[in-house]
Amino acid sequence: MAQITYDEVNLMLRLYDMRRESRLRQARAWFVENFHPESPEEMMQRYPQGSEENTYIRMVISYWDMVAGIVNRGLINDELFFDSNGEIWVVWDRMRAIVPTWRAAFKNPHLFHNIEETCKRLEAWREKRAPGSTAAMRQMMVQAKAGTKGT
After folding, report:
1. Is 1 a member of any domain?
2. Where in the sequence is the domain holding 144, given as residue range(s)?
3. What span, in angstroms and rounded, lies between the C-alpha atoms of 75 and 83?
4. Cα(146)–Cα(138) distance, rounded to whole angstroms?
5. Residue 27 falls inside a structural domain
6. Can you give the pTM of this predicted structure?
């Protein structure tokens, strides 16, 4: 296990404080509960530009992409981050199917690269510690999504 610095811990706490901001907290809760688009077209139809939901989506994705950029640059130890930040993986899992279309539309193959790379490492770390856990989490998310469609 790598030595963790005071600065890394302090940065983690500051990022946690940002997550507690009421508007971001509201956006995160909405995202986890409601964001299940299967295509970019469905996303734009259900959450059009200017809607509250679209604002929530942008807030959540940009927050986690910013955090991933910090982690990817080594400013926070991966293990320290992965121990207590599974939400980033949920966000990536929800958006990963539509990211290729966004990358093509914006002609930017690096769009959301930070969050994707962090989540690849998170999955590898998780699977090393608990084999099969990523598949189990995806299955739970599919079941949760099916449960919300019935309401």
Report:
1. no
2. 6-149
3. 15
4. 12
5. yes
6. 0.90
